[in-house]
Amino acid sequence: MLKQEYTITVYTENHIGLLNRIAIIFSRRKINVDSLNTSPSEVEGIHRFTIVINEFEDTVKKLVRQIEKQVEVLKAYYNTNEEIVWQELALYKVSTDEIAEKVKVERLLRENGARAVVIRKDYTIFETSGHREETEKLVEVLEPYGLIEFVRSARVAIIKASKGFHEKLKEFEEVEPGAEIVENEFLDKQDEVFSM
Asked: Based on the domain organization, do 147 and 169 belong to the same domain?
């Protein structure tokens, strides 16, 4: 069995400290995170973590079970690249003088599915999205033309299966909230209950 790339999708409530607790799960197992993205989901109040790792499947299964033990986590899934649709966004900063003199910009953009988002006298910024191999290919193309800076975003991914946790999220959304719980019934009577 070989290591391969897995995308872990985690649906959570948005609470402070959860990201740190999830990161600790990875660091304790000495697993490197290749990409991490957090964003709101289609259901208000529910957030989605997209985590990319390169690991053995049995290790990934254990990780997902451990993540699901966190109180704020509603559900966690793992998928191979064949089971998801994913993209990464990349930005490239290139010297405007270099790019204008040595290459036909329009042809370069068309061939690599990129577009110019900022054009200034001193630099031009191109944007493209795609798989990692595609964004890295444009790095190689632009290096001879004075590539100043390159940055790539974390992965965003959607599971190909048409049904899944989405229906469960909608069910959570429709459930009537329970009666409000009073955390401490003596909170407003501090002077009567506590003395120093």
From this structure: no
Residue 99, number of CB atoms within 10 A of its CB: 21
* Cα 73 to Cα 182: distance, rounded to the nearest angstrom: 23
Q: Among positive and negative, which fits the CA dihedral 166, 53, 13, 45?
A: negative
- 74 & 138 share domain: no
User: 7 forms bridges with which residues in the sheet?
Assistant: 52, 79
Mean pLDDT to the nearest integer, 23-32: 93
Q: Which helix (H) or strand (E) holds 18?
A: helix 18-28
Quick one: DSSP state of residue 160?
S
Same domain, 77 and 160: yes
Whether residue 179 lies inside any domain: the answer is no
Q: Is residue 44 part of a domain?
A: yes
- Whether 43 and 174 have beta carbons less than 8 Å apart is answered as no
Q: pLDDT digit string (tens) for 45-90?
A: 889 999 999 999 999 999 999 999 988 898 899 999 999 999 999 9
Sign of CA dihedral 106, 111, 114, 120: negative
Paired with 125 in beta bridges are 93, 118
pTM to 2 decimal places: 0.76
